[in-house]
Amino acid sequence: MIDEPLGQLEMSDLERDYGVPAELMEFIDDGFLEVLVEEPAEKTVELHAPSLRRTDPQGRITAYSITWIHPDYNSQFCHYYENVPGDFPNFYVTEETSDVGNHILDVNTLDDLIVWLADSRSQI
Fold it and tell me: Which of 14, 75, 102, 110 lies most in the core, judged by the most C-beta atoms within 10 Å?
């Protein structure tokens, strides 16, 4: 979603409820990532990086979000798969540009995600 969060969300224990690893929690704890939506019934949390939000000269807004599914429930609640549910990573990173649409970035491992986040944060 490109819109800002609708009010203050009550934070749950993201590590317990969604299996968010400590490496990713560091980006949440330092404020680089914020919780946008929690979906407890689907063991899914959507995070966004407000500091990466940009507006181009045409007025289009580009924002980034991470959809994270608890690893133990990926096959039940995954949004994308190739052959069988759960064969893709339990997360995906979306680049969303108004008037253009969404693009899922090629970030396929937790290590790739952490590197992408660190690189993105260093470019601010």
Answer: 14
